[in-house]
Amino acid sequence: MIPKGIEASHILAAMREIDREGIPPDREPRKFHVRSDQTGGRLYPPKYVISLAHRHAGGTEWPSSEFSGGAEANGFLQRLGFEIVSCRPPKPVQGVGQPKPRRGCSTGRKGHDERCPQCKRAVQKLLEACYGKAEANCSFDVSTNLEAHRGRSYYQHLQRIHSALQQSRGHESFVRAAKLDDCDFFVPAPGFVVEFDESQHFTPLRQVALQSYPPSLRTGFSVTEWIGLCQSIHARDNDPVFRDEQRAWYDTLRDFLPEILGLQPTVRLHAREMRWCALDPGKPEDVAQFRALVEGKRNTPRGWIAVVVLQSNGDYDNNSRLVVLERACEAVAEHTQGDGVILFPAGWFRAGRQQARRLYPWLEEHVPAILKRWNRRLIACVGVDGRIRPNDDIRRDQIAVAIGPEGIVALGRKFSPAPGEEDIQLAASPLAEEDGRQRIFELNGVRYFLCLCYDVFGVRKMAVPYPDPGVQVILDLAHSFSPKGEGSGASYFARHGFAGASREWRCPVFGTAVFFDRRIPPDWPSGVYWNQGAKSTQKWCYDDNPLRPVDERRIEVPEGLALLRFYRL
């Protein structure tokens, strides 16, 4: 029996979890899929979705043995507004001569083989149905030799990736072909490559390459998701011994085709993403589903985040912090292109014994003036601390402020107190407006959620009443960490705060803080993306984290040191 309390939002949360983590082999559907337009029309196993949804509703993963598939599961999902799709393709019309689908591809009890030839043929037919023409095994006159690209604007990025691959295992010479091998598919109009990635593409060496991609590179897939797949699949091919370096390098060149040839971003499909051969190019609804998925990848949220972590001696005021902010913004603008977010710690500015909002006019006078120096949209997120007097009871006032060239764009009051914070004025609810502004803001199609310090721990608590706020990134402005032995909590914050929030909402978490009178730990993660499934945060370690900065810069400031870490989305 399906338990009570599961709502449509919990089903959607379960679907997004499957998008991140995949489907266990023993939970693949046999007869039916469930789909939703809100997740790009992708197909999911109904019983597994319901099992996961119960955890998102505040319980545990519901055992599949406790309820039935077919009528019970499908009827339940249909009542919540979801569409049920048969796994079985329609029988061919007699006399047409259509080939019989290979047993175990789009259906069957033995599971789906990712090397199914019908899948790649179906992808080509679906691309043709969507875009008019799709060439399979298309070749381009692109040299695999790094030095052939010298003098081009992207050369330094390729050089960095090539060097990282060489240094990883000591195989310095792994390029054998003179020209890049054929690409899986090419869509001439509007002009982009589609790669169909099977398991052998998700290797530790591919992860090394992806982690070195510049923030400015346009891709038709989520680099963070692909890094996570490299970690979880962890494929290896040692025949020849440098095969993984070679494959990672060739994949890199295909991803750089927009820079090399001026094409649109390379789209990547994961062979296990769905049963591609179950989609019928002759059915408008299947074509629409496939097009939505491809267009979703082509419109993958782009941009970058620069996290500013401060090493401080404690000697500062608002004016000196404004100088640090200005110097950080200058460094960020110098090392990035396009729009992006610059994240500073909580309590960056102080209103003293006044309300934090008293500093808003001062912020809108000075910060936008700095951001306007560059002809692009930069959003600076800073924390402001002050005091407030509700009913003559003095309380602490902590606000996260997102400021763009036009002024304040979002405000978020702290909603989850740390232990012992009885004297803090909290938000009425996690999604309550502050001075008429929401805590969620959008930049280039990416929705960001502002957290203040312990709010990342509160993300789990708000999961039941607010299971899906529809954001792609969590930004956490933590306050400070003291020297070790004085209750600093830096590791605890990263493992249970950042990683825990990413685990709950299945999105990356970027966080920062001030390290007072201590060095910034070099391995402390200021960006976390959870890809460890049901693993407990108690057992999570920094090495589990696939999210790495693509670059770092250090700025000497009067207060100490500002460490800038650059991440791509």
| Rg of Cα set | 25 Å
Q: What is the global morphology?
A: globular
Fourth-level CATH superfamily of the largest domain? Carbon-nitrogen hydrolase
Strand content: 15-25%
Helices and strands: which structural class? alpha/beta
Distance between the termini: 41 Å
CATH class of the largest domain equals: Alpha Beta
Low-confidence stretches: 89-110
Largest sheet: 13 strands, mixed
Domain module count = 3
What name does the CATH topology of the largest domain carry? Nitrilase/N-carbamoyl-D-aminoacid amidohydrolase
The overall pLDDT average reads 88
Determine the number of helices (DSSP H or I, runs of at least 4 residues).
14
How much helix, percentage-wise, in residues? Answer: 25-40%
Question: What is the CATH architecture term of the largest domain?
Answer: 4-Layer Sandwich
Account of the 3D structure:
With 569 residues, this protein is α/β, with parallel strands linked by helices. The chain has three domains: 1-88, no CATH class; 121-298, no CATH class; 304-568, 4-Layer Sandwich (Nitrilase/N-carbamoyl-D-aminoacid amidohydrolase). Helices cover 30% and strands 21% of the residues. It contains 14 helices and 20 strands. The protein has helices at 8-21, 46-56, 71-79, 117-131, 155-169, 204-210, 223-233, 243-255, 257-261, 284-298, 318-335, 360-371, 455-461, 490-505; strands at 32-35, 43-44, 83-86, 135-138, 183-187, 192-197, 267-270, 304-312, 340-343, 349-350, 378-388, 395-404, 407-413, 440-443, 446-452, 473-481, 509-516, 527-528, 551-557, 560-568. The strands form three sheets. Strands 8, 9, 10, 11, 12, 13, 14, 15, 16, 17, 18, 19 and 20 form a 13-stranded mixed β-sheet that branches. A four-stranded mixed β-sheet has the order 4-5-6-7. The chain has a three-stranded antiparallel β-sheet with strand order 2-1-3. Helix 6 packs antiparallel against helix 7 (223-233) and helix 6 (204-210) packs parallel to helix 8. It is globular, with a radius of gyration of 25 Å. The two termini are 41 Å apart.
